[in-house]
Amino acid sequence: MPPRKSPKRKADVNEYRHEDATSPMRPEVGTQPQFKKKKPPAAYRYDSSLAPELQWDEGNTRAREEGEALIREVLNAPTLEAARAAAARLAALGRPFLNWAGKAERGAFTVPTLPLFIHERLATQAIIVTLKGHRRDKQEDLFDLFADPRHTLREQVLGAYEHADKWVNRMILGDSLVAMNSLLRYESLGGQVQMIYMDPPYGVKFGSNFQPFVRRRDVKDGDDDHLSREPEMVRAYRDTWELGLHSYLSYLRDRLLLCRDLLHPSGSIFVQISDENVHHVREVMDEVFGHDNFCGELAFRKTGGQSSLLTASVHDYLLWYAKDRAVVKYRKVFKSKVEITERPSIYRWVESPDKKTRRKMTKEEFEGSESIDNGWRIFAPDNLASLGKTETGSGEFTFDGVTYKPGHNQHWKTTQDGLNKLAVAGRLIPVSTSLYYIRYLDDFPLIAFDSIWADTSAGGYSDDKSYVVQTNRKVVQRCLLMTTDPGDLVLDPTCGSGTTAYVAEQWGRRWITMDVSRVPLALARQRLLTATFPWYELQSEPRGPASGFVYTRKQNNKGEEVGGIVPHVTLKSIANDLPPEEEVLVDRPEVKGGVTRVAGPFVVEATIPTPIDWEGDGVEDSAPPGASTAGHADYIARMLEALRLSPVLHVGGGKKVTLAKVRPPAKTLSLAAEAVVANGPGGDKVVALVFGPENGAVSEALVANAAKEANAKNYAHLYVIGFAVQAAARQFVEDCEKIAGVAATYIQATPDLVMGDLLKNMRSSQLFSVCGLPDVRVTKLKGKENAGKWQVELRGLDVFDPATMEAHHLAGDDVPAWLLDTDYNGSCFHVCQAFFPRTGAWENLKKALRAEYDEAVWDHLAGAVSAPFEAGETATVAVKVIDDRGNELMVVRDLREGAK
Ligand SMILES: C[S@@+](CC[C@H](N)C(=O)[O-])C[C@H]1O[C@@H](n2cnc3c(N)ncnc32)[C@H](O)[C@@H]1O
């Protein structure tokens, strides 16, 4: 493929593009009805040679069979080597192991194999360009800013997953098991991820695992109002934590297995975990990755200690495993030795500037309560001899008239000539009866991080938390710098507020992140979109970060090394008259001044979960792990029962509709039920009902099929009842009469219906209520300056609170976020303007670009009225509003029809 022309970018705002990398073409969200490349669910097996159940009792037939097979292998082995190998595996079966309920039964599992559809394209550059001068640049350039390859519907349907597109970073909404399986099975991404950072919920408390509101960080376990009402979340929780810690371990083991498949042979995985379960998780990781691939258990200081009657717990852990420890990619990350508290204790001596006086530090100097005089150098007398006698290296050496020997069964670390050179360089010091090498602290003023990271609690690191369980950036950054290079691929299956994506973006790594909940993804999207980073100079700008960063040697006026290359003076270099070795400090690349770097283009993707086979082709289109068609029939029966018990639908404006005679239709393809509405105008009417999936959002296809059938069968109205609804489906309902000839209403069902025993008492008899669309006004502007341009105002939004079953009106400038696509193509949403009302979200960028943009531009992005814009080719705009629970509601307006 010829290299794509670089988009025109302003010199002062720039971004990294991964020009060398590609990924398989993924379809956009509008194409799912045509998408035919289904794949069967994928089966995963635990490597039985690693499963350590050596329980010869009756219950564990698998271990017994395996043990017996190995004994046979030993007996019949053709060679001694083969017998030894089989015996070793047999012995491994007998190691102590961690067992839990359901482990032995789960020797294999299947995961639905689902395609990922692109829902949104985002690029900060595109927003900046759109705002500048309030007009669209040439269409071409704008799509390039989004890195949108602009495939036609036909190309997408025929070419999806077959052709390669330029790389864009990716945020995926979905269960990590399903999403990772899709990366493996649809995209063959196995063996390509260099580093995985996984920060799973630390334990099994439901409430404290998930943050249900975009703008509220306080989450209390056990408080029902604080529970997530996202159906996918409830479902994920119910399925995965059903047996408490037992299911938690199964949940982790499954995901770790897929992580292992995704890792590059030299790749690493870090799992962040607290002291509550670190011991269990380490056992599980030993099993999945192999004990030999354990690289370290790192302790890092967390923000604020957990108060306790006993010692406060102030740190969490990182369990670090390699795919293959023998070839793991590892870059040393250093910290300064100079900070007194960190200085290794061997550095206890000082030398005067004229080198005439050398003495031990006073106690106060060593402890730091007294400073060391200017110009005095700190040093440590270090061993000049190593263990083992050698013929040439163990002779006598005379220094200052005294003769020294290297010590019993030892040899000098260098030759006699080398020792002479050390003497000339003033590097030798007699202490007591031995001769030592003088190692100055500034020979190399840094030391590689060890397994205790004490500098990672927040404070001074400008790491404002937006998510209850947000990880300190420093922690992820260190892992990333230790185990990856620029351009490498990094994955986080537990996105949360997107710390890994943020850090990867900062350091020029490619990233994929995923989360089952919409709330954290909304936070992560905002964090990435509004971020600014330094521009680290690249070896080759056309090639992008994969070419590497530029590092140079620099000293400040105190003579301290402040560059990315630091000389490392060693005994060897002095003794051999060699220039000092050089260390690269991977966290200190050259920074180009005067450039504001923003996040490169990224996409938001999701699987389209529909739990049954809508296509009728025998392949289940989607289902969360474990769901079955029989389960679906149960679910429909439960919904019908709920409707019979609670037949009043709240349809907005204080109006109610009462359903009678709710029953399944005699013969149906798409409808779930029919009912009689007796209290509507014009007497009794028979209406049709369709239910969205139990564990996902109502899709456009679901509404379209139901509407077609409802119209053909002359139902008076269609009620679409769901727990969540995709934006396009919500819009379809709105336009249903026009498109499909039957009017439709979307009814929000309270997720309490599927929460079952998680919520013991349902507080309300109002189980179903209408869910409004954003109230949007589109205006054609007049006046000289803006003539012909358009402006969108978000006037408000009715939100339904599933906890109280009440609808509230939110003013347009009181929503957490809203997005505008000024040229909506009917499928993928291109974020041309992104509004975070009444927040300082854009503050960094605003500061950086102060000279370029007038204040009014930023006022728009913090309010409810868009900046003016020109109509695009499609003459259609789409407005997407994110509510506090992370729900997305979308309205589409046709500019040709004029402002509504
Ligand atoms: C501890 S948080 C991660 C926080 C993150 N490190 C940060 O800095 O914000 C764990 C995240 O995992 C997500 N999660 C839990 N189960 C999941 C699953 N099965 N698939 C994907 N994400 C899941 C939760 O929604 C939550 O956002």
Question: What does the model show?
Answer:
- The protein has 900 residues and is of the alpha+beta class.
- The strands form twelve sheets. The protein has an eleven-stranded mixed beta sheet, with helices on both faces. It has a seven-stranded mixed beta sheet with strand order 31-32-33-34-35-36-37.
- β17 and β18 form a beta hairpin.
- α13 (473-483) crosses α14 (499-506).
- Bound molecules: S-adenosylmethionine (SAM).
- The site of S-adenosylmethionine has 21 residues, from β25.
> What does the oligomeric state look like here?
single chain
Summed over residues and divided by their number, the pLDDT gives a mean of 82
How many helical elements? 23
Strand content: 25-35%
Fraction of residues in helix? 10-25%
The number of strands is 45
Globally, the shape reads globular
Which strand order do you get reading across the main beta sheet? 23-10-11-9-8-24-25-7-30-5-42
Largest sheet: 11 strands, mixed
Q: Which segments are poorly predicted (pLDDT under 50) over 5 or more consecutive residues?
A: 1-11, 49-54, 219-227, 609-628, 755-766
Radius of gyration, in angstroms, nearest whole number: 32 Å
Query: Which ligands accompany this protein?
Result: S-adenosylmethionine
Distance between the termini: 45 Å
Structural class: alpha+beta
